[in-house]
């Protein structure tokens, strides 16, 4: 499976066929894992086995470290550490995967609207403030679907919104158009850091990792 999961479509005017209607009715919860997990189960019952969606996209999964010319500064590192712990918790609850932080205050939390809309909302709330974006995978991320993705539109939205730093999970985040994405970030002065999933984020630990680069 590939592509964005637009959760809000379950509230749209789209009329599902009988199989999907039956599926939706049977689910006690309609979060990502429940919805797509149920679809995966139906596919398997029909002989279609889903595999790791990144199996042919490994070059797009970043290794731990700073990906841009500029590393996060001390202030941004503090926001990354603070935001990483919050993002981990909302991801564990299957609410969203992105938070937007400014001065170690959580400005916006992603739900069904997606990363770019979350960043845009944060810019309206904290007008003029520098923002840091933290996007994580779920603690038990199923790599068959809904793997975190960052693309050129996200960097463009960050530029428009005054976001100066981005942190993502190393090995579990797809960077579409990776070279162009990093070039655009460099041109915009945006710092991007990929964090080892097993890391316990503390500001000093973030800076220590940056200094090694």
Features:
Cytidine Deaminase, domain 2, 8 strands, 213 residues, single chain, two-stranded parallel sheet, globular, 2 domains, alpha/beta
Characterization of this structure:
It is a single chain. This protein is an alpha/beta fold and 213 residues long. The protein has two domains: 7-45, no CATH class; 58-212, Cytidine Deaminase, domain 2 (3-Layer(aba) Sandwich), CATH 3.40.140.80. It is built from seven helices and eight strands, in the order ααβαββαββαββαβα. A six-stranded mixed sheet has the order 1-8-6-4-2-3. The chain has a two-stranded parallel ribbon with strand order 5-7. Helix 3 crosses helix 7, helix 4 (115-125) packs parallel to helix 5 and helix 5 (152-161) runs parallel beside helix 6 (178-188). The two termini are 34 Å apart. Residues 200-209 have low confidence and may be disordered.
Major sheet: size, sense and barrel closure?
6 strands, mixed
The share of residues in helices is 25-40%
Lateral strand order in the biggest sheet: 1-8-6-4-2-3
Give the terminus-to-terminus CA distance: 34 Å
- Basic shape: globular
Give the total of domains. 2
Give the number of DSSP strands: 8
Short description:
By secondary structure, this protein is α/β, with parallel strands linked by helices. The chain is built from 7 helices and 8 strands; from the N terminus they run ααβαββαββαββαβα. The two termini are 34 Å apart.
């Amino acid at each position: 499976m590939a592509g964005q999961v637009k959760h809000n479509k379950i509230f749209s005017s789209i009329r599902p066929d009988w199989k999907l209607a039956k599926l939706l009715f049977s689910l006690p919860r309609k979060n990502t894992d429940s919805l797509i997990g149920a679809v995966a189960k139906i596919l398997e019952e029909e002989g279609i086995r889903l595999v790791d969606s990144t199996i042919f996209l490994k070059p797009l999964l970043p290794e731990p470290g700073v990906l841009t010319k500029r590393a996060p500064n001390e202030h941004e590192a503090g926001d990354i550490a603070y935001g990483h712990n919050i993002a981990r918790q909302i991801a564990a609850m299957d609410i969203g995967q992105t938070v937007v932080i400014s001065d170690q205050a959580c400005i916006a939390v992603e739900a069904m609207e997606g990363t770019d809309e979350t960043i845009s909302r944060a810019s309206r709330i904290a007008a003029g403030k520098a923002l840091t974006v933290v996007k994580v995978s779920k603690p038990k991320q199923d790599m068959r679907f809904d793997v975190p993705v960052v693309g050129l539109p996200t960097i463009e939205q960050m530029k428009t919104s005054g976001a100066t730093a981005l942190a993502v999970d190393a090995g579990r985040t797809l960077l579409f158009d990776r070279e162009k994405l990093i070039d655009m970030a460099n041109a915009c002065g945006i710092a991007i850091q990929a964090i080892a999933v097993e890391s316990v984020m503390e500001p000093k630990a973030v800076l220590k990792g940056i200094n090694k680069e």
